[in-house]
C-alpha cells in the first residue's frame, strides 16, 4: 500500500492518502478544502486515481474537500454511516469496512469528541481522527461530545490495539507526525500513565477552551460534504480556499 501523510496549515489538519499498488485506486481520509488541488497533484504524481474520500467525523475546524474532489476527480464520498448525511454515498461502520482492492479500512466507533466519530485501522496504522492526538485528545464540549464516553472509546477501543500500532492523528499543533499506541498509553498526559476516568474528567472539565471560531460555518458546511457557506466572513475565507477555479476548466 502507498501511504502519504499530508498537512494543511490553516487548521493544522492531517489528510491521509492510501493507495492501492495493485490497481492504482486511492482513498483520501479527511481532505481539507484549501488543499484539494495539492492533494490531486500528489495523487496524480504517484500514478494513482482517487476512488473515495473518507471522513472520520463532521469537523468543526475546517471544511472537507469531499464534494470538490467528487466534482473534479469523480471520487465517491464515504463517511460514518451513523451521521446519516444525504450527501454521503458510502456509509462506513464497524460492521462495514471500506475495502478498495488490497486496502482494507476497518472502522472503530470512537465517540466522545463527537457522537459519531470513527477511527480507522489500516494494517499497522490507526488513523485516530480527533479522538486520540499525540500527547492529547480532542475536546468534548460540543457536537454531543462527552468526556466519559471519550475515555472509554480510547481505553476500550484504541488502547486495546497492539502497542506498536502507529498512531496518525487528525491534527497536531507542534510539528509531530506520528506516535504509537504504546507511547500514548505510557505518556499521554490526559489518558496515559494509568489515568483514571475521574482524573481524565477533571482535566477535560477544566480546559477552559475558547469557542471554536469556525464551528458555526464548518459544521453545516461539512454536513453538506464540503459546502462553503456563502455568508462566511472575509476573515474566515482562508478556511474555504479558492473554489472558483478548476484545473479542468
Provide a descriptive summary of the structure in words.
By secondary structure, this protein is of the alpha/beta class. It has a single domain, classed as Metallo-beta-lactamase, Chain A. Helices cover 21% and strands 25% of the residues. The strands form 3 sheets. It has a 6-stranded mixed sheet with strand order 1-2-3-4-5-6, covered by helices on one side. Strands 7-8-9-10-13-14 form a 6-stranded mixed sheet. A two-stranded antiparallel sheet has the order 11-12. Strand 9 (118-122) and strand 10 form a beta hairpin. The longest helix has 10 residues, at 36-45. The protein is globular, with a radius of gyration of 17 Å.
CATH arch. level architecture = 4-Layer Sandwich
- According to CATH, the homologous superfamily is Ribonuclease Z/Hydroxyacylglutathione hydrolase-like
Estimate the global geometry from the Cα principal axes.
globular
Binned, the helix content reads: 10-25%
The CATH C-level name is: Alpha Beta
Radius of gyration: 17 Å
Secondary-structure element series: EEEHEHEEEEEEEEHEEHHH
Number of helices: 6
Poorly predicted spans: 243-249
Number of DSSP strand runs: 14
What percentage of amino acids are in beta strands? 25-35%
CATH topology: Metallo-beta-lactamase, Chain A
End-to-end Cα distance, whole Å, is 32 Å
Oligomer type: single chain
The biggest sheet, with number of strands, parallel, antiparallel or mixed sense and barrel status, is: 6 strands, mixed
Give me the secondary-structure category.
alpha/beta
Largest sheet, spatial ordering of strands: 1-2-3-4-5-6
Domain Metallo-beta-lactamase: 12-171
Keywords: Metal-binding
GO biological process, one term: glutathione metabolic process
Protein name: Glyoxylase, beta-lactamase superfamily II
